[in-house]
Amino acid sequence: MVCARLRRSxxxxxxxxxxxxxxxxxxxxxxxxxxxxxxxxxxELALLQKPIAEELRSRETxxxxxxxxxxxxxxxxxxxxxxxxxxEFGAKALQSPDTQTQLLLAFQEDPDRNVLASSDxxxxxxxxxxxxxxxxxxxxxxxxxxxxxxVCPFCGARPVVGVLRGEGDGAKRWLLCxxxxxxxxxxxxxxxxxxxxxxxxxPVYTASEFDHVRVDACDRCKTYIKSVDLTRDxxxxxxxxxxxxxxxxxxxxxxGYLKLEPNLLGL
Length: 267
Ligand SMILES: [Zn+2]
Ligand SMILES: [Zn+2]
Hints:
Blueprint: H1 2-9, H2 18-31, H3 36-59, H4 71-81, H5 84-93, H6 97-106, H7 115-118, H8 120-140, E1 159-165, E2 172-177, E3 183-185, E4 204-207, E5 210-217, E6 223-229, H9 238-244, H10 246-254, E7 258-259
Parallel strand pairs: 1-6, 6-7
Antiparallel strand pairs: 1-2, 2-3, 4-5, 5-6
């Protein structure tokens, strides 16, 4: 109730719930046929994340191993509806509870030092389960929003997308964490990767098909992040609209820019 009221009044950053994300994925799968398969798969993943989030909240548990029972259903879902490369990885590398446990625990320590966790496929499986866990943790002790850093003030992960909202005499930018969905304000005219502030070296690209999503690029470090402009589409759900506009990723990558952080589907 409170969330709905805040959203309507347009005050500050109000996070999209899993229900919002699920509904938006269904809506955009129809609106953007080129991204239909992606969005349909994402929607199924979000439908799996929902009961995880609910269980963690109702049991008030922060134990990462509470995620373990969800591995078999995730593996089955990917077998049925996911890309073959992910299905094969799951069938080969993630069948035993031991390796599943190792993968989850690697993210509490250093994922780069674990063979499974540092692979794109391993990171995909871990993130599907860890996102609702990290989001629950972040909801228990909200992070300091006054940070000026380009990484999440709660969990230290990089942002997956920017969010523009109108406020006072100009829209402000938030960055949305790729792991725990925390949002924090970040200056608009600065590259979140290398700190470049020269306007001429941080071009903004737009495409007529996607009026409310833009590419914020940097010519110094050659990275980009997309931003969803909620002043142009108040119904957008940033993490979902980011996925739906995968055509912009392809365009940006053809121009020689590398994405600051891949989304849940590794794009
Ligand atoms: Zn985070
Ligand atoms: Zn840069």
